[in-house]
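User: Sequence for AAA+ ATPase domain-containing protein below. Tokens please.
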Amino acid sequence: MLLKNSLLRITYTRQTLVRPYSLQRKSFPISYYNTIHSRKLSIIGIIRTIIAPLSSFLSQSPQKATQELESQALSTYEKIKLPITHTFNKTPGFLGREKEILVINDLLSRDPKFLIVNGSESVGKTALLREILASNQYHVIYIDARVPGFADVRSFTTEFATHLESFFNQIVSYYPNLKVFRDVSIAFKSLRLSGPESFEIRQDVQLNADFVASQTRNDLAKLLEKLRIGLLMYHEADLYEKKEKKEKKEEEENIDKIEHRIFDYDDARRKKIPIIVFDEAHKLRHLLNDKEALQMLFDALVVFTTQDRLCHVIYITSDSFYEKLLAKNNILHHTKSLIIGDLYQSEISKYFHGVLVPSIPQEIRGRILKMENDLHGIFGGKILHWKSFVQDYIVSRGKLTIESFEPFIRAKHQLTLLSKNLPPNDDLIPIDPIINICHYFIKMNKVPYYHLCKEFTQSVIDALIEERILEYRLIDEIGDVSDKPEGRPFVIPSSCLMKHAMKSFVKKGNDDKN
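Assistant: Structure tokens for AAA+ ATPase domain-containing protein:
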């Protein structure tokens, strides 16, 4: 009898301890269980990454295995000790852009947007966004495709995971009561440490390259899903410690229990608004070299912005054809495009007299002051050309002219090369199309794109745009409103200096004919 009671007690204990998984979940709050579950997965991932080299230790020579272990241990230690971060501070000496700042601030104060910030090279797009986003109101996840740190989908996933790990770590530093986000950060660290440089992945690449290639999109999909969950948790989290019971009861009586987004109420705006910024985003297409992965990224960012209203996304690009790519991927109608133009004459004049002129030696200063009006007509508001011209002017001891200015010579050379290397096998191209196209832009600044394509063929016009001689535009620059929407899309010279080079190119062509 005693033995029977003991067996019954043991059986009851085992049934109590080993309950079904679904019943175990019911005994815990969902948020608590998810926290434990994510911590378990992340710790397993980290341990697996560290001990992975031991699996092949016996199959290699001791010396080679030891070298692999040392290399992997050093790599893992450096990644943990010095995670990659990017600062996004204001640019020193920032000038003007009052209208652009007002427009962008107004857009960011509303519902989440997928913004495409376009403009010619070195016009000041990144400096403008630094001026706006270097604020306590925003938290920027910044990825610069000019210095990417990745060259394929797998390394992009690792790089992106690094930035997201830093983002969620900083949430904990801003709001100490939101310690749950440390577990979210650990999840991204696990993904980062199992990236392309890990020993396990390198072994798989050597053994089965096709299998590893098939996993890259899966890894990116996991990263984007983790980001979505993390952002949802961030929006639904309470920033403050639990209030006293009386205050809590009063709130429950007056306010319905509804979870809101950051963008719903002014009180919620005290949270830092997450903004994902991709600088020179058009380069992602070549860096990832995977159309399906790129489409997956596009789709996820659209969901984060327009559907779930979790964060802003900003694509900075100098590729004027980039909107055509977005249209092909069915993304353009989910985005808001902005065009950043040159500085106004008053702003560039202030920069010239306040910053550039004091750096010019007194003995050669008089000549360049007399050239100021001419320089406005040639350089417009392109601050890079003003700065480069003054630097070269000082080096030449005041002997520099526009005709000997290197960017001007380079612009003329572009026109000459393209006129000699027109797109092949196109019998519809008229004689001397480049000179005739230049005639258009000498007379006017904007020319309808399809009108030029009809007269000079699309292949020639697209070649001019791809070579950055012309720029393709669907909308006007901020502060410049056109009264003729039927003339869109239109084409403009890439800069005032390029327009001046067109005049010189036409003049030289006429002289050669004579």
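The longest strand covers residues 138-144.
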